[in-house]
C-alpha cells in the first residue's frame, strides 16, 4: 500500500462553507494498491472545520464511463451524491437533477455511475475509512466544476449534534436532498 495523496485544510478551502478556515494539517489521506479488489483507501479525519463536517473535495468522472464502487470499512459516513443535469444535451454544472445524502454503515457497499458527482463526509468521532476500486485516476477536470462552484450543492454541517444541510448559493434551483441508506440508493 502506498500513500497516493493528501488534502490539507488549506487545499480544501475552495470547497468549504467557511472559505476562511485554514491550516496545514491533512483533512484526508488516499492510499493506493490496497488489494486485488480495492485500488484505494481513503482515511478522513474526524475533526471539523467550523460547523462543517470533514469531507473529501468532491469530484465527477469526466474522462471515464466506468462505474466506481465504494465500501465503508469503519466510521460514520455520509456520501453526498449529486446527479448531473443536462440541458439540450450539454452538462449544466450549476444545475443538479437529484441530490442524495447516502448514509453508509461499516460493511456497506455502493456503486456510482458517471452521472453522479460525490463527496464523503465524516460525521463521527473517529476516522472514516473507505475503499474504492477506481483505477483510472482523476485528472484536474474531475474536480474543476466542484471547485468553480465552491463545493457540492449542499454543505453538510453539525447543528446541535445533528447532521443538516445548507444550500450552496452558487447552484441554481437545487432539488431537496433525499436521505437514503446504501440499500435504498439506486443510480
UniProtKB/TrEMBL annotation:
Recorded protein name is glucose-6-phosphate isomerase
Per UniProt, residues of the Glucose-6-phosphate isomerase prokaryote domain are: 40-163
Origin organism of this chain?
Answer: candidate division WWE3 bacterium
Q: Which GO terms describe its molecular function?
A: glucose-6-phosphate isomerase activity
> Is Kinase a UniProt keyword of this protein?
no
Q: In which pathway does it act?
A: Carbohydrate degradation; glycolysis; D-glyceraldehyde 3-phosphate and glycerone phosphate from D-glucose: step 2/4
Per the similarity annotation, which family is this? Belongs to the archaeal-type GPI family.
| Recorded superkingdom | Bacteria
Catalytic activity, EC:
5.3.1.9
> Looking at the Swiss-Prot or TrEMBL record, what is one Pfam family this protein matches?
GPI
Question: One GO term of the cellular component aspect?
Answer: cytoplasm
Reaction equations catalysed: alpha-D-glucose 6-phosphate = beta-D-fructose 6-phosphate
Keywords for this entry? Gluconeogenesis, Glycolysis
Question: InterPro entries from the xrefs?
Answer: G6P_isomerase_prok (IPR010551), RmlC-like_jellyroll (IPR014710), RmlC_Cupin_sf (IPR011051)
Tell me, which GO biological process terms does this entry list? gluconeogenesis; glycolytic process
Amino acid at each position: 500500500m502506498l500513500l497516493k495523496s493528501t488534502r490539507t485544510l488549506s487545499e480544501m478551502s475552495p470547497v468549504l462553507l467557511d472559505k476562511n478556515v485554514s491550516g496545514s494539517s491533512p483533512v484526508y489521506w488516499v492510499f493506493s494498491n490496497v488489494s486485488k479488489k480495492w485500488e484505494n483507501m481513503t482515511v478522513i479525519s474526524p475533526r471539523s472545520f467550523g460547523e462543517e463536517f470533514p469531507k473529501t473535495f468532491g469530484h465527477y468522472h469526466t474522462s471515464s464511463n466506468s462505474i466506481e464502487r465504494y465500501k465503508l470499512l469503519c466510521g460514520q459516513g455520509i456520501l453526498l451524491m449529486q446527479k448531473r443535469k443536462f440541458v439540450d444535451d450539454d452538462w449544466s454544472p450549476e444545475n443538479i437533477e437529484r441530490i442524495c445524502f447516502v448514509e453508509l454503515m461499516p460493511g456497506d457497499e455502493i456503486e456510482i455511475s458517471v452521472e453522479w458527482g460525490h463527496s464523503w463526509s465524516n460525521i463521527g468521532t473517529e476516522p472514516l475509512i473507505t475503499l474504492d476500486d477506481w483505477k483510472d485516476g482523476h485528472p484536474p477536470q474531475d474536480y474543476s466544476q466542484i471547485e468553480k462552484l465552491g463545493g457540492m450543492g449542499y454543505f453538510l454541517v453539525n447543528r446541535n449534534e445533528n447532521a443538516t444541510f445548507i444550500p450552496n448559493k452558487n447552484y441554481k434551483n437545487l432539488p431537496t436532498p433525499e436521505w437514503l441508506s446504501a440499500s435504498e440508493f439506486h443510480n
